[in-house]
Design brief:
Length: about 80
């Protein structure tokens, strides 16, 4: 969870976020960034790639099954 916590802290992320998986789940979870953090431990146990993003796509985090993690802002103008 250190990656998520650091990204939230370092980038000043707050407000609504969306969690999505790419195969094992068929739902998205929408809530405050802090609420997503509470559920993330259980969600990351599912064997799939995991994505947390700002609803309009301003930023996205990825947690891959291979253990890679990434964070990015959308390019300006998009």
């Amino acid at each position: 969870m250190w990656f998520f916590d650091n990204a939230v802290s370092d980038q000043g992320l707050s407000g609504q976020a969306v969690y999505m998986g790419d195969s094992a789940t068929e739902v998205a979870v929408i809530g405050d960034v802090r609420d997503i953090r509470t559920a993330l431990s259980a969600l990351l146990e599912m064997p799939q790639h995991h994505y947390v993003m700002e609803p309009s796509g301003e930023w996205v985090m990825c947690f891959s099954m291979e253990g890679m993690m990434g964070f990015a802002f959308a390019p300006e103008g998009n």
